[in-house]
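Researcher: Here's my situation. A collaborator sent me these components and asked whether they could plausibly form a single complex. I don't have experimental data yet, so a predicted model of the whole assembly would be a useful starting point for our discussion.
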Amino acid sequence: MTDPVFPRIAIIGAGLIGSSIARAAREYGAAGEIALYDAVEDVRTRAAGLGLGEVAPTLESAVAGADCVLLCVPVGALGAAAAAAVPAMKDGAILTDVGSVKGEAARALSAAGDGRIHVIPGHPIAGTEQSGPEAGFPTLFRGAWHILTPVSNGAPGEAEALARLTAFWQALGARVESMDAARHDRVLAITSHLPHLIAYNIVATAFDMETVEQGEVVKYSAGGFRDFTRIAASDPVMWRDVFLHNRDAVLECLGRFSEDLAALQRAIRWGDGDTLIREFTRARSIRKAIIDAGQDSRAVNFGRNAPGAEE
Amino acid sequence: MTDPVFPRIAIIGAGLIGSSIARAAREYGAAGEIALYDAVEDVRTRAAGLGLGEVAPTLESAVAGADCVLLCVPVGALGAAAAAAVPAMKDGAILTDVGSVKGEAARALSAAGDGRIHVIPGHPIAGTEQSGPEAGFPTLFRGAWHILTPVSNGAPGEAEALARLTAFWQALGARVESMDAARHDRVLAITSHLPHLIAYNIVATAFDMETVEQGEVVKYSAGGFRDFTRIAASDPVMWRDVFLHNRDAVLECLGRFSEDLAALQRAIRWGDGDTLIREFTRARSIRKAIIDAGQDSRAVNFGRNAPGAEE
């Protein structure tokens, strides 16, 4: 067995992602020691019971001595977590996160940075609709993309820090890419944020239909609706923060989505079958492109093949 | 082994559903002889090559002598198929279909009925995003609902015909329910038709974003978008017909969906996190209701666990 990438890591936030990192880091030998902290006492107790690592009583004691601190909290909580972590971190350590909005993560983490540590925001494109320390599993990141959005300030050791964080995620099975935070946020607005908003919305709409019984919606959900309910089961606080912090990109996508939907609505109203066929055929070809790109043969889909998932 | 429910069935349309019925009927002994016909010569050739049954050269020769004729064609093609089938059917035989819009199916099949046969429209709530005779598999209907929307005209043998068709679908593993066609169309508009329209639309929207490269949409599709592309890969002709023939119910759902989405959009724009949390939490509880109802432990999900599917 090779040496771990980091002798010691600290994971702040022991939910689905944080607990999966703990499990994966141990399973694949990516970290020597694993310290964990969660702001919720009950979560700390459960994380300890699960044997996820050394559960620390305070955030500061968790990050002390860590070579890499991973903030696994909702985007809106990154600023406070980073501000608490940085003064307790050792010189030259890496501060990263797993938030879905990288512009805000870069802002929050950089604001807390004091020049002694390396700030490298990151985002694993992996997850399930489950939450909590019990929901994590070590293979969550295998084959998934992990996007780093480093902000260079020319500090000494910067390149080496980026290389080590890359090696850490690769050890967990991820494929690592670097890109600009703004570009990340535009891409994820359409591939992740808008789909989640749509899923939440259609589920709510379905349950407000007076002409249909809720029991029937549940009973006959296999026709397509069920896939939306799965996505819509994701953590509400996490997603609230995503929408509030990636507002402009989400609103841009949403405006276009509504415009396109109005065109389909008009085609249905006027019996314009040619337009429907044309648009549906185009959408189908996009699916084919995704399959051809090999995206869909991955074990790590959103929620599929997740050990312990209810499906 | 018990006697088959029907000594002979005829399947018109050898796509995903038709070929799955053929496979399931043989596998579970629900039919003695299986005749098939498809309007497309190439599909007939492939169906014969797959050994799905006796592939007939004409629709009339396929239905001749059959105790039950199953029309497995798009909703818009039901009228012509029924008109061609009925005169060739034997007295007392059953004419059914698998279309997703039961009001139109009842109209089309009843218009072709001549009083000698039993018309019983039906709809299996099962499917995958795949199409064609190769896409079918015998377990597609296991655990899935099959909805019958019988229209009573008091003809002799009517109750027995309904009981036999029910037994046939139960033999294929389905859970059979009867309901009014209009009610079916209202329920399916929200649980199936609207989700498909939304999925088609978001995929098209994503690929029209100039600010994002299409390759990036494909690459990072695991964040939620991929689930939509799968639904959007469904057969365009079938879905065009669904939307055109269930127009009023779909437009009603669509209007409410857009209204609800506008409320979420406004909450995002004005930073109203409380509204987002409230709506997201509500959607999540609906998912829980579906899991509690045992809907999601079924082997027959939409596209999941489908043998030969690419996932």
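Model: Some features of this prediction you could bring to your collaborator: The CA atoms of residues 7 and 43 of chain B lie 25 Å apart. Residues 181-207 of chain B form the longest helix (27 residues).
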